[in-house]
Specification:
It is built from two helices and ten strands, in the order αβββββββββαβ. By secondary structure, the chain is α/β, with parallel strands linked by helices. The protein has one domain.
């Protein structure tokens, strides 16, 4: 075990930095929800979905879609900069993906209608099965 001597000033600085980091994490990347038609918009940033069993439609707005959960079905309209998926049994259907599709986990399905994204299947590299493919638009 390593012991480090920390002065009172250093402890205060660490406390301020931790508090600022927590505030930044809680205030950034919020997803607006319109309950009337179940569409989530992220006009000024990325869309983060961290749920189980969500079925929804989002507007990519040239942003990145992050899905972390299980059994979600996400329809991504418009142009997405990138898609990143973690968890299991998620299905993402995108109109267009510009940069990349990165998939972690297993039994993930990412389908896209247009674009030439780099496809990075980290799950398959570890022996897990995922399905990533272009579909007719």
């Amino acid at each position: 075990m390593t012991h480090v001597l920390v002065s009172a000033g250093q402890r205060m600085l660490v406390g301020v930095l931790v508090t600022a980091g927590i505030a930044a994490l809680t205030s950034s990347h919020t997803v607006r929800s319109d309950l009337a038609d179940n569409i989530r918009l992220a006009k000024n940033g990325d869309t983060h979905i961290t749920q189980y069993g969500l079925v929804t439609t989002i507007d990519c707005s040239d942003s990145t879609v992050f899905v972390n959960g299980s059994q979600n079905v996400i329809t991504a309209l418009g142009s997405c900069y990138a898609i990143s998926v973690q968890g299991s049994y998620n299905t993402i259907i995108a109109d267009n993906v510009v940069n990349d599709i990165t998939v972690y986990g297993f039994n993930q399905k990412v389908l896209y209608k247009s674009g030439e994204p780099a496809v990075i299947d980290r799950g398959r590299e570890l022996g897990m099965m995922n399905f990533i493919d272009r579909i007719p638009g």
